[in-house]
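Researcher: Quick sanity check before group meeting.
Model: Go ahead. Protein one:
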Amino acid sequence: MRFPRLSGRVVLAPMAGVTDAAFRHICREYGASLAYTEFISSAALSRGGEKIRRMLRIINEKPSACQI
C-alpha cells in the first residue's frame, strides 16, 4: 500500500456521528490535509444501505481515509 504525501501536518480524526461530508469540507478549509470518514462497522458495511453510502460519501476529497 502506498501512502500519500500530505501537504500539511493537520489530520482530522474519525469521529462517529461527527465527521460527515460537510464537516470534513469545513475542516479542509481550515487546514486539514487528510480527513477520515466516520467510523463504520464491518457488519454495517456488509449489509450496505443508504445510511452507510451517505457515511462513505467522498466528493473531491483527496487524500481521504475510512476507519472500519
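Researcher: Fine. The other one?
Model: Protein two, sequence then structure:
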Amino acid sequence: MDRYVDDWLTDLYAHHMLREAQAYYEKVRQPVVIRKAGEYLRFMTGGRYSLQSTFDGRQLFAVDGMQRRIPEKEWSSGLGDQIYLAIRISLAVAFSHQIESMPLILDDILVRFDEERQKEAIRFLADLGKEEQVFLFTCSEGTRRLAAAVQQEQAGETDTIHLFEISRGTIVSAD
C-alpha cells in the first residue's frame, strides 16, 4: 500500500510542477513570443497584419491596418499559415536565446503559401538571417526561383541569402 501512495504522491507532485511551469511560461514567456511573432507577421504581410492575444493568452487575433481584431475562425488559410510560421519561428528564437543560439533549420515550410506569401516569407527569413542562422531546404523549383529573385533584389544590401543545390550527392553553390 505504501508503494501506491508513494507513486500517487510522485505523480501528483510531477503534475503540480508541470502546471507551475506552464503557468510561468504563459505569464512570462508567452507575451514575449506573441509580441515577437506579431513583429514577424507584420514584416511578412508588409504591415497589413500584426498579432495580439487575450490577456490570458488563450485566444489569438490578427489585427489589420484599421486595428480590427480578427478572430482565428475568420483567418484565411494563407494568413493562418503566416501566423503559424511567425509563432513557430518566434518560439524557436526565444528558446535558442535561453540557452545557446542555434540555427533554424526549415524544411519546405512554404509549400502551402501562394507565390506572394512565399516571397514575403523569404524576405522575412533573409532579414532574420542578419541575426540568426537560417537554413531553408526545399524541393520546390518555384521556391528556389523566388529565393533567387529575393537574392537579386537584395544584392549589395545584404548578404544573407546563399543558394545551394545537391548534385550527385554533393552540395554545390547555385549562386
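Researcher: One line on it for the slide.
Model: Helices lie at 2-44, 77-98, 115-128, 141-153.
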